[in-house]
Structure formats: structure tokens, C-alpha cells
Amino acid sequence: FLSLRQRLSLGQTSFLILLRACVYAVMLFFLFGPALIDKRVSKLRRPLTLLIDSSQSMGFPASAKNSPGDKPQSRLDLVREKLAGGKEPLIQRLNRDYDLRVISFGTSLDPIGAGGIANLKAQAPGSRLLELLQTAARDGGAQSGLIVFSDGITNGERKSLDGTPPLPVPVFTVGAGESDGFTDVRIAKFGAPEFAFRGREFKIDLTIQASGMKGKSVPLFFNRGKNLVTTRTVAIDAESFEQKITLSFTPKELGTHGFSVSIPAQPGEQITQNNHKEFKVDVQRDKIRV
């Protein structure tokens, strides 16, 4: 400044000093290595599968403690209320945070979409819970998990996942309905031949299951048309009871015959539709064997 002041006026000297100060300031600024970071975060919505049991048992009352005269709430109604009730329904929150797939299951997997829950009916003839759970876990690719709404009543062939490879995704189960006070006896599994030979005995295999009926005995009737073939007494000795029974019959007439196995409705039983099975057997002539 003093050197320039000897040759220039005060205004010119101050202007040049100011320009040089700006140059030095810019040089120091870049020496500190400034950087502008533009950070953008995109949230990827991972797939999530929601499995809803639509078997006939989901139409049963959710609780055995309903007041007289009140229309009982079904187990499927309870699931609908959980998913679609409130100011911010759970189904909306899941659909916002995840790539949500909604599937109903009974004997097969049926995609319905989030909007189809309101029209879902409990009409599937059975529930292959464990088999379909394995299928949904392995066919869905990389998933956050599976959320399963079910009452747990299943009539599939598999009873547990012991001895099978672990599922590739976590599974979160939500029970629908209360088990306390639930009373039911049912013909859970049934197998009969489609045809038989005259004069040769054929067998019928069935499984009787019961809940909440410990200490009781129930009759099992085996009928051909309206005629009683035989009867059995089933003694229920556990809260969760299961017993396999084999019945036999030797036809003497040709043609198609109608048969039935049934258990009379028991006091306090909430479900009576599963106490009866009807089937037909085509009786043919015995083949000649040489």
C-alpha cells in the first residue's frame, strides 16, 4: 500500500489493494479444497407378502363369548377390521412402505390385491397352510417377509416343517379368533375308493379331530343310503384330540351305491357342517385273473 501510495492517488491505491485481496482470498478458498455434495436418497420399497386364510373355518365365530341376540363376528371379519379399521388403516401403511402383495389361500394361492379384502369370503374347502406357506416363501423372490392371518386350522398333508429346508424369509403369524371355549368335533381327513368289486371288502380311512370336548364320547355312524352299516364310539381323551379310524364294507350288489359317515351335532358345538361326509362307490364285477 505504501509503495503504491507513492505513485498513485489514495482511491487508485485502495482499489488495487482491494483487487489483490480478492485474488488472495480466492486462492486461499481453493487451497482449502471446498466441495459441493448433492446427496439424494431414494427409498426402495421391498416386496412384502400378506397371506389371508379364506378357508371355511375363517367364517366361524371369532369368540365363543358372544351375547345372546348379537350377530357373532367371524374370524375373517376380525382380520378385515385389523387391516382396514382406524383412521390410518394398517393395509395403507403397509402399502405405502412396501411393495405389497395380498394373497388369499385355502387349497391354493389366489392374489386378490389390497382392495379385494373387503369382498373376500371364507369359502375355500380346506387350508393347506404349511404347503402354501413354503410355496409363497420360495416363489416371491427377495422379500421382507410374510405376514400370515389364519386361525391355524389346517387339513393339509404336512403337519410341521421339521426336516425341511428353512424358509428363506421371516414369517410373522397373526392368530384370528379365540381358542378358549371353542367346541368342535369334525371328520378332518377322509379317504374312500371310487370303485369296488362285488363280494370283496373295501376300506374307508378317516381321521376324527375334536377341540374342547375332553372326557366326552361321541358316536360315529356308517350308513349305506338310509341303512346303518355299523357304528363306533369315539372316546375323546384330550383337549386337542385326533384319532384315525378304518371302516370296511363288502358289497353284494352291482351298481353305484351312496354311503355316508356322520357324527351327530354335540351340545355346545359351534360348527356342525364338518360332522358329515358323503361318498359314492361304483361296485363292479370282479375281474378274471389267470
Task: Provide a concise account of the structure shown.
The protein is an alpha/beta fold and 290 residues long. It has five helices and 13 strands.
Can you describe this structure?
The protein has helices at 2-7, 10-31, 75-84, 90-97, 129-139, and strands at residues 47-53, 99-105, 109-111, 146-150, 171-175, 184-191, 195-197, 202-211, 217-224, 227-235, 240-249, 255-262, 276-284. It has 290 residues and is an alpha/beta fold. It has a 5-stranded mixed sheet with strand order 3-2-1-4-5. Strands 7-13-12-9-10 form a 5-stranded mixed sheet, with no helix packed on it. The chain is elongated.
Fraction in helix: 10-25%
* Oligomerization: single chain
The value of Rg in angstroms is 36 Å
Strand elements, count = 13
Beta-strand content: 25-35%
Spatial strand order of the main sheet: 3-2-1-4-5
Structural class from helices and strands?
alpha/beta
